[in-house]
Specification:
Blueprint (H helix, E strand, L loop, with lengths): L6 E10 L2 E10 L6 E2 L4 E4 L15
Antiparallel strand pairs: 1-2, 2-3, 2-4
């Protein structure tokens, strides 16, 4: 999930009105290793630039 100022690798856990709740989150920044984030991250849908959905392993 990309926002204007950062990117996350996460599981979309819930949609609550204008908010997205993420779990198992890693913060992705250029030139740095992914950093685990404790707890949940809540993001406003309007701030999301794009979401990449990965295929499951059942193929």
């Amino acid at each position: 999930m990309n926002l204007p100022d950062r990117a996350f690798r996460a599981i979309l856990w819930a949609k609550r009105g204008p908010l997205l709740v993420l779990r198992d989150v890693e913060l992705l920044e250029a030139g740095r290793a992914p950093q685990s984030v404790d707890g949940e991250v809540v993001v406003e849908r309007a701030r999301v630039e794009f979401v990449q959905v990965l295929a499951g392993g059942d193929s």
